[in-house]
Design a protein that fits this description.
The protein is of the alpha/beta class and about 190 residues long. Helices cover about 55% and strands about 15% of the residues. It has a single domain, classed as P-loop containing nucleotide triphosphate hydrolases (Rossmann fold). It has nine helices and five strands. The protein has a five-stranded parallel beta sheet, sandwiched between helices.
């Protein structure tokens, strides 16, 4: 089963970056929704940190609606598809973004949720080399993403869910099976 557009969704620290990295190894070209936030934070001359990213992310959604990142990224997605590229969407968060992409691409969009126990996610976030988060920051981010940006919808409605509570190789193996057969390891 080869889909031309795959979106990886999940809470912070679940393993989305690992899954996205695997898709890039397989030739998918990444469209990083969060990159729009980071570019805007830098454009404003602000420090790239959780507080500033959250403020900009929420402001972009206030200005352009809850589907802001999908709408702002559609031209890039379309250009890549026109070149015959397979697209990885990294950072699909809001339910509105999910609905916009599903309406536009239908079954051509495969959504894979990567989930992990909260304590494990927080442990990973505390030790990640780029933008580590304290437990308090991670809790705050979780609540903000669920309350303010509708993050639960795409996770709940994902086509497949990968439990990422073991070695990285297990996550990769589960993702590969979904991409190859359209079935999860639990199926």
């Amino acid at each position: 089963m080869t889909k031309s557009i795959v979106a990886i969704v999940g809470m912070c620290g679940s393993g989305k970056s690992v899954a996205g990295g695997r898709l890039e190894q397989l030739g998918y070209v990444k469209v990083y929704f969060g990159g729009l936030t980071i570019e805007e934070v830098k454009r404003r001359g602000l420090e790239v940190n959780e507080k500033n990213e959250r403020a900009v992310r929420e402001e972009l959604r206030e200005t352009h609606g809850m589907g802001a990142f999908a709408v702002l990224s559609l031209p890039k997605i379309e250009a890549l598809r026109a070149e015959g590229k397979r697209v990885l969407i990294d950072g699909l968060y809001s339910f509105s973004e999910y609905k916009i992409l599903k309406q536009k691409y239908g079954d051509g969009l495969l959504v894979v949720a990567v989930v992990a126990p909260r304590a494990l996610r927080y442990e990973r976030l505390a030790h990640r080399p780029v933008r580590p988060l304290t437990e308090a920051e991670a809790v705050s981010r979780d609540y903000a993403e669920i309350d303010n940006i509708e993050k639960g919808g795409p996770i709940a409605l994902a086509d497949y869910t990968i439990l990422n509570d073991g070695p990285v190789e297990d996550l990769v193996r589960q993702l590969d099976r979904i991409l190859e057969t359209g079935k999860s390891l639990q199926a």
